[in-house]
Design a protein that fits this description.
Radius of gyration: 39 Å
CATH topology of the largest domain: f41 fragment of flagellin, N-terminal domain
Shape: rod-shaped
Strand content: under 5%
Largest sheet: 2 strands, antiparallel
Strand order of the largest sheet: 1-2
CATH superfamily of the largest domain: f41 fragment of flagellin, N-terminal domain
Amino acid sequence: MRVSSTQYHITVNASLQNSNAQLEKLMGQMSTGNRLTRPSDDPIAHVRISRLQREEASIAQYKDNIGALSSRMSQSETIMSSINADLLSARDLLVWALDGGNSGADLGAMATNLASLRDALYAGSLTKDQEGTYLFSGTLSKTPTVLYDATAPAGSRYTVGGNAEQQQVVVGNGLTQPANVTLGDEMSAMLNALDTAVNAIQGGTTTANDPATRTALLGAMDGVDTAMNQVSTKISKLGGVQNIIGTLSTDWNNLSTANKTAVLEYSQLDYSTAAVQLKTLVSAIEATQSAYGKVSKLSLFDAL
């Protein structure tokens, strides 16, 4: 078959352009270390990488949620441990106040200390998080956990402000964990009982042998004991939640590492193979250019 000079030039130029395009693509892959410069390079690998990247985005969100949840749980546990310590101090004072040998002046001095503890416990129930919302108010996080009405009689000044609903945080596919602890009911009942006792013994005009005074002190003791048990139970539950999210965090970290490794395996360039391909392409281009140069110099006039 006869090949014209024009056809030959077109064929050689097309071959050189194709080889140069392959060389440019290979050089780009080698500069980035990524063999997938576009989806068509390996459609199956591209689909798998896209799926892994979507999964990695979800994992990152779960890990962020777990981190925020862990921080909130730690803060709640610290505050509740402090509340329990104040409750224990209040209980010790109440045990002392119930001793019939105390004078009215003794009880009056104890009332001052009990009032300080009452106020500290009230302040603890109103703790806010970093965002300025109440930590123990349930889903009504903008409302104080416990409300105080100074005009009400002792024993009814403290009322529930928040609710007992729990805020749920997504920590996995279909997995949620409560993000808050509620203390409105527990703290308001205890504060009212403690306030009644303070009101009964302040002023130094009564003793623990007075039936009404003793009833108020025993009621405060029951209220403090109940609150201590409730708060201790919630602290234990917090520990359980911390263990769960700690395990989940480890699992997500392991899966994230596996996903990143898989993405590298699908996309990472094999430099040894690429080096061989580069050498082959360069040699082919040089050979084509050399042959083209020699053929281009040929002329029928040379045969005359």
